Amino acid sequence: MADLWQVTLVSPPYETWTYGLPSHFPPLSPGQRVIIPFGKSHRAGVVVGPAEAAPRGVEIKNMIWPLELSPLLDQDFVDMAVNLASRQMVHVGRILEIALPRGLRTAAVTFKVDRHMTERNLPATMRPPDIVRVKDRDRAALVDLWLEGRMRVRINAKKEAEERYVSLESDPPWAVRPNAKRQLRLLEHLMENGPQSLYSLRHTLGDWAPDVAVKLEGAGVVRLGELTADHMAEIDGAGQNGADDPGCEFALTDEQRTALDEMTETLESGGGAHLVHGVTGSGKTVLYMEMARLLLEQGRSVLFLAPEVALACQLYRTVARRFPHFRTIFYHGYQSPKKREASFRELAGGEDPVLVVGTRSAVFLPLPNLGMVVMDEEHDESFKQEDRLAYHAKEVAWFRTGRSKGLLLLGSATPDVKTFQAASAGRIRVSTLKERVGDARLPDVELVNIAELGSSKQLLSDRVREAVRETVKAGEQVIVMLNRRGYAPLMYCLDCGETVRCPDCEVGMTYHKGRERLVCHYCGRTYSYPLTCRKCGGVNFIPMGEGTERLEEALTDLLPEDAKVLRLDRDATRRQERLEEILGAFGRGEAQVLVGTQMISKGHHFPGVTLVVVADGDLGLNLPDYRSSERTFQLLVQVAGRAGRGEHPGRVLIQTRNPDHPIWKEILGGDYQGFFDREASRRNMFRYPPFSHMALVRISFPADYDNGPAALSLMGEVLREQGRALGISVLGPAPAPLSMLRGRKRFNCLLKSDDWGKVRGLYAAMARANPDPRKVRTGLDLDPLSTL
DNA sequence: AGCACGCCGACT
DNA sequence: GTCGGCGTGCTC
Q1: Distance, angstroms, CA A743 to C1' C7?
Q2: Which residue has the higher pLDDT, A189 or A284?
Q3: Which residues contact A402 (CB under 8 A, 6 or more apart)?
Q4: How many angstroms separate the CA atoms of A352 and A341, rounded?
Q5: What is the pTM (predicted TM-score) of this model?
Q6: pLDDT of A236
Q7: Is the CB of residue A729 inside 7 Å of nucleic acid strand B?
Q8: Which nucleotide is closest to the Cα of A159 by its C1'?
């Protein structure tokens, strides 16, 4: 028998199976990609190691062909995947699926061989099934050709077609038949979620989606293709008007010099995590660059991670300008798969130190001799992937820098409470920057009590209205943030007092006036408006509460005729070019007021803005989630930073109904330490993270699966009983916020423990008790961002 | 994820 | 009578 290898499938069912290596091939190495026969078809897999013996009762098949001459991934990369998989309690293949760009996971490839092989009646191009049919005597020659590098692999063009993005070409109402349910479904989906690749559409909506998209393209309603130049400009250019690399032109301050010494010390004492806690504008970027220079001199690579594309782009420009003679690579999820694949291959094949800047997914890139990972704005929630498989880039970066004795540099003005706790407890080192570089000044932040406004129709107080009017009159600009899109979050039926709720999610549906629809912000379900009340058949609804759309209307009424108000939220930027249009117009001063959701809080830099209004500062505070204060603190400190970035001093007004809440003093004074102390003691008292280990267990089954509820209660019982024995507190199972998704009923269970190992043990016990794993799916989210 | 098997509706 | 829709099951 040929020698046996363990091969991990990088697509469902993600399992690791045993395959034989055909004769004539030299031994394989872990990290080598191969094409394997799988059932009636073939798949791509990754060799994770040699197999000791064949499993009993199965007939071992031979692999078809390797996908590259030398392993794409090294042992460290495989170890990382294995380690992460065991921590997340998933198959290794699921980690590899996330880590590899799509082109490196597909088995839809064609092998092209040098022409002279055709003399042996072999075709010049072969697909995997053709290779299986090659006669033994030709096979040896083919292997020789492969080893000489005269047989190449090319990804099939048909697969690439699935990578095209679908985006809306026109606004609703669309020119489609009103009973074309699938077409409307797809259009609404694009409306809610922005441009999507055909691949992800097929995944979220169903196999019909690509065909429907092509049909809609024919009708001219959607666009199909690469992301447009407009969209890339929007992504790449969003930071262009920003004051990037603050402080680069200054000599290092004493504070910065001290921080630099401290970071160097951490690096030289064997690496590990190091927090740079510095107020906005204190020159953290300069420190990143200085450390990067140090590492490059040692011949080590550096990875920079930013929470979103626009910020990553800004950082990339700084890096490229600072190190013009080094190889720099930019990597993010909106790039074409071709580009991502090329970057991945280039890195995997290289040995020289390289600088990479990217977003979350870049944490998996195979950097040669990794010396440092920088995570800018480390508190940002985008570093954690929540859908599909829950992983945090910080965890991956921690593992990788740990392996290579590198430095994990975490930078933020408002660090993650968990990170700061680790720093306070002395588990990671911290450098603090208290001063701003140059003579930039933090804006004045004031509270506006709106408690007495009650439920009257106006959300904006007289004081804020006056301030907005005055600012506009003075020729300056205003940003108003309301973290709630739509016109009104609730619609009341005047006849029976019922509110319109989503039948799947049971939450109130938000009225979107411009779209003439009611939208569920959880699942995206929409009803057209006007509509009739489900309970009493009435047709008279009144909108309650306020969203950005209504606020835009109110501000337009407030200001003189010639003043212009723009709105920036997910609805307004649904069509690709819109974001750039809006930001551009506001930046050029064509409008005086910009209303928006938290989208406006990040990265953009408008020198003309002297007033920032937070319309509802309490919005995030009252959520029943243990991280809501932290989120509010971080968001409001960020938003406040939008004011007074030009010559004129800035002013921030925050409206609240609870002016006595202690968080305001901390936000007004930019007092992170004060906030942290209070928050830490509260979390300690209630055993919330970081003083406990929290995990979310997700359980789902098809809505029409009769045994589902019984299976759920059985598994819930196992969790509670065995949880009690392990000292783990168990909450639930309770219906998830999105209780129905794609025909599946979803439930959550919250675990609180003193140990991750126990959590994994309990989850494993529950999974064993699953009566039908095919129907009842489970997932584990360690340290969830939200417990909702 | 693919691909086959298998069971019910609209057509040559 | 068949063609073909997608539910279900399996893959070293």
Answers
A1: 14
A2: A284
A3: A271, A272
A4: 19
A5: 0.90
A6: 43
A7: no
A8: B1
Long-range contacts of A523-532, Cβ-Cβ distance < 8 Å, separation of 24 or more: A523/A738, A523/A740, A523/A741, A524/A188, A524/A189, A524/A192, A524/A193, A526/A188, A527/A500, A531/A500
Token pair for residue A213? 């998209």
Share above pLDDT 90 across residues of chain A, in percent, rounded to a whole number: 54
- Cα-based distances in Å from A504 to A204, A268, A509: 17, 55, 11
Whether the bond between A659 and the residue before it is cis, its omega within 30 degrees of 0, is no
- Please, what's the b/e burial string for A307-329 (b: 16 or more CB within 10 A of its CB; e: otherwise)? bbbbbbbbbbbbbeebbeebebb
A55-104 pLDDT, tens digit per residue, is 888 889 999 999 999 999 999 999 999 999 999 999 999 999 999 998 89
Is A467 in a helix, a strand, or coil?
helix
A451 vs A80, higher pLDDT:
A80
Q: What is the DSSP string of A668-696?
A: HHT-HHHHHHHHHHHHHHTT-TTSSEEEE
Asked whether strand C has any atom less than 7 Å from the CB of A19, the reply is: yes
Backbone angles phi, psi at A83, to 5 degrees: -60, -50
Secondary structure in 3-state letters for A148-206: CCCEEEEECHHHHHCCCEEEECCCCCCCCCCCCHHHHHHHHHHHHHCCEEHHHHHHHHC
Instruction: Encode pLDDT of A383-405 as tens digits.
Output: 999 888 899 999 999 999 999 99
Mean pLDDT of A656-685: 94
Cβ atoms of A404 and A369 within 8 Å: the answer is yes
A599 residue type, one letter = M
- Whole-number Å distance, CA A724 to C1' C4? 53
Q: Find out whether A493 is annotated in a ligand binding site.
A: yes
At A456 the pLDDT is: 58
Give the span between the Cα atoms of A754 and A692, in whole angstroms.
5
What domains does chain A contain, in order, with CATH numbers?
3-155 (3.40.1440.60), 160-225 (1.10.10), 232-428 (3.40.50.300), 444-485+546-681 (3.40.50.300), 489-544 (no CATH), 693-782 (3.30.70.360)
Judge whether A21 and A62 are in contact, CB under 8 Å. yes
Residues 172-201/A with CB within 7 Å of nucleic chain B are none
What are the tokens at A125?
């191009």
